[in-house]
Amino acid sequence: MNGASVTDLAALARRPLFSPRAWAGLAAACVALALLPGLNLVFEPGHPLHVSSYAVALLGKFMCYALAALALDLVWGYAGILSLGHGLFFALGGYAHGMYLMRAIGRDGVYQSDLPDFMVFLNWKAYPWYWAFTEHFWYAALLAVLVPGLLAFVFGYFAFRSRITGVYFSIITQALTFAAMLLFFRNDTGFGGNNGFTDFRRILGFPITAPGTRAALYWCTLAALAGCLVLARAVTQSRLGRVLTAVRDAEARVRFLGYEPLGFKLFVWTLSAVMCGVAGALYVPQVGIINPSEMSPENSIEMVIWVATGGRGTLVGPIVGAGAVNGLKTWFTSVLPELWLYVLGLIFVLVTLLLPQGIVGLVRQACERIGRRRGAGAGQ
Hints:
Number of helices: 14
Strand order of the largest sheet: 1-4
Shape: globular
Radius of gyration: 22 Å
Distance between the termini: 40 Å
Oligomer: single chain
C-alpha cells in the first residue's frame, strides 16, 4: 500500500471533495445550462439571444455522455475497476427506450403497419415475446434500468467472486461488449440489425422533434446528471466509499482486516451500470438513432479517455472531460474528420504523461499555488 494504512485512506476519503465555493459554481453552471432551452423557445432565430435547436440537442447529447463518464468514474476512480465495456450498458438502456419509441411510430412507417418497418421487411408477422409491454413508456423506462443492472449484477458476481482483477477484468468486459455487438448486428434478434432503431416520431404523444419536446428532454437529462452527481458524491463520501477507496489501493489488506470486497464492488458496479443505462435511454430520443455501433469497443475506450482527461476519482472531472473531448470531436469531425482518431490518441497520451490528475487536478494545483502565495504574502 506504499506505506499508507487503511485508516489513512479512510481519513483521506472523509475530506470534502469540493469546497462550498466549488459547489456554488456547479450550481450556477446548472442554472445557466437550464436556461439555454428557454432561449431557444422564447427568442426567434436571428435574435442575439436565440439558441439553436441544434445546440440544444448537441448539449443534451454531451450531458448523456457526461453521465456515462460519471458512472465509469464510480467504478474506476473509486473502486479501481477499469471497465472497457460500459458502452454495452449505455446501449442496452438506449435499446430499451428505443423499443418504446419504435412502437410509438404506429402506422406512420413506410409500410403503414403496426410492426416496425424492419420487421415488415423481414416478413415478421408479430412482435417477439421480449417486445411485450414495450408500448408502455413506464415499462420501457423500467427495462432501461433493470436490463443493464441485472446483466452487471450477474456478470460482476461471478467475476468478483472469482477475484478477477486488473487487465484480465478489463479484457473480459471488452469481450462481453464485442459479443453483444455481434449479436445485435444479426437481423434475427429483432433489434433492427446493423441499422438499429431510427425514424422516431413521438414520445408520450408529443412530436419528438418539436422544440418543446427537445427542451423537456434536455431538462430531464440535466436533472438526471445533477441527481446522479449528488448520489455519487453521497456514495463516495459514505463509509461504503471509504471501503471502496481502500479496496482500490489494497484489496488484499482490506480482506485481511475482515472486510469482504465482493459486496462493495458488486454494489458500485451495478449502480454504475444502471446510471449508464439511464444515460443511454436519455441519449436515444435526442440523437434519433440507436444501433449496434454504440457497443463497439472504441466507444467504451472513449469513455475511459473522458474520465482520464477530466480527472479520475473526482466525479466532476469526468463531466468536464466528456464535454471537452466531445466538443473537440464535434469540431474536428466537421473540419478535419480524417485526423480525429489521431487527435484522440494524442489527447490520451498527453494526459497520461503530463496531466495524470486530469483537468480538474490541474485546476486544483493552480488554486493551491495561489492559496499558498496569498498565505505567504499575508505572513509577510
